[in-house]
Amino acid sequence: MSGNKRLIRNTLTLRVGSLLLAAGIWCWCITAWGATPDSVRITGNAPDYAGMTLIIETVSHPLLREQEELTRLTINEDGNYSGAFAIDETTQCTIDLGHYRGAFYAQPGQHYQLALPPYKPRPEAERFNPFFEPEIILLGVLTPDAQDFNERINDYEIDFEAHYNAYAMTLFNQHNSPLAKRVCEQLDSIHPSGSDSFFIAHKHFRASRLYALAMRRLKRQHINRFFSNEPVRYRMPAYWDSFNETFKDFFAYYFQSPSGKRFRMAFNEGAPYDSLSLIMKNDTLFTRDDLRETVMIRALYDAYYTGIYDEKRINDLLTQMTERAQCHQTRHLARRIIDRINRLKTGTIAPPLEALNTNGKIISLADFRGKFVYLNFMHTQNYACKKQLQALAAIARELKRDLVVLTVLADENDQPAFDYMLKNNFKWEVLHFGGNGRILSDYNIKAMPMYYLIDPDGNLALSPAPAPEENFAERFIEVQRNYKNNKTRMTPDKQRSIFDM
């Protein structure tokens, strides 16, 4: 647990309300992971959040750290809320609360009365700062059974962090495995494992982090002790904290090790995935299919961004994994990684986008298929955006016959943002992201304004595209001309012959 986590408990009056259906996309995600889900109920009272919609999320793709929506909590005027979502195993959930991000663990079939902290808005300067990380707070849970489990995890995390900080330098400098053992035994005496399999595994992988410091020159022994005989825990943050530390830039280590020599030669010679997997399986560390495949997919993902390895080779291997990996979780993750590394490249399909416009109508990017779209992301309280909106208005007028201007506003509240656009006579199609972080994530929005040009086939023609004042009009005319020429070459006019007379 990082240093900025702290436990917050209040004594808010809670009331059970009506249940909401879980989001369909999460049901699909549960199916992809291959388990039978059970319903989790959420209720509470938080007057500070009256009128807001809070989104409960979880990390759906552990290597990519992508957030998946579980459900939305609509807070009524009295501050009451209720919701439900489906999970198949113990899952860490988070809620964006403005300045904070609240966290709690949910178990299938449980009811959770949450105690939310007083609302503290996130300053606009922080909302689109790519380096800003909201403070994570551990939410109070007032339902007895659920409270006991969350307090058990939270109390252990507080003590683990204290011990880790106290002994990390000694463990690292002295390679002192006996000390790591004593620290773990001390934590075990304070926090007995009992029979809870999740808590037992959670402590196992926290111990892995301590031993990793002492065993940094004994990587094989560390992997064997903590990973080789353990299933991949797809929903356990403690597992992924340790896994990512252990297997980061794995090829750099494995290619230089005696055990990885044959694997390195096969990789460099262009061997297919099946052959590489079989070679790796002969290593006693990686006989488990789930671990071997997860390590390989992490290694390929890291390798892609080093600039050392051929991108096409890595794409080909990942594509093979989507079809040939033994574990369906691996196949699913391989598809997501392919999407991630190829996302937003010029020539690729633009991510889908759907949001409400100024009239409350749902507008989709697909509605503009057959036209060039100048997609842009703005914030009406941002000085640079205000300035460029004026320039964008000129583009919308001058190129209205050939180009659709589509603006997505990321202001916290939609109506004041729409009012600003109408007041300034910005009459092109304007949408509001509606608190859906997926829209901003899909287009990698770290700062604003941001622009993309999408061609009539739905592909990214310029990614990113220049701003209106950066010769966009000239670039657009060039792209449009090339597009038309390519279409003409693909479908040439039929030559007339004597048989057409």
From TrEMBL:
<dbReference type="InterPro" id="IPR013766">
    <property type="entry name" value="Thioredoxin_domain"/>
</dbReference>
<feature type="transmembrane region" description="Helical">
    <location>
        <begin position="12"/>
        <end position="35"/>
    </location>
</feature>
<dbReference type="Pfam" id="PF00578">
    <property type="entry name" value="AhpC-TSA"/>
</dbReference>
<keyword id="KW-0812">Transmembrane</keyword>
<dbReference type="GO" id="GO:0016491">
    <property type="term" value="F:oxidoreductase activity"/>
</dbReference>
<keyword id="KW-1133">Transmembrane helix</keyword>
<protein>
    <submittedName>
        <fullName>Peroxiredoxin</fullName>
    </submittedName>
</protein>
<dbReference type="InterPro" id="IPR050553">
    <property type="entry name" value="Thioredoxin_ResA/DsbE_sf"/>
</dbReference>
<dbReference type="InterPro" id="IPR000866">
    <property type="entry name" value="AhpC/TSA"/>
</dbReference>
<keyword id="KW-0472">Membrane</keyword>
<feature type="domain" description="Thioredoxin">
    <location>
        <begin position="344"/>
        <end position="482"/>
    </location>
</feature>
<dbReference type="GO" id="GO:0016209">
    <property type="term" value="F:antioxidant activity"/>
</dbReference>
<dbReference type="InterPro" id="IPR036249">
    <property type="entry name" value="Thioredoxin-like_sf"/>
</dbReference>
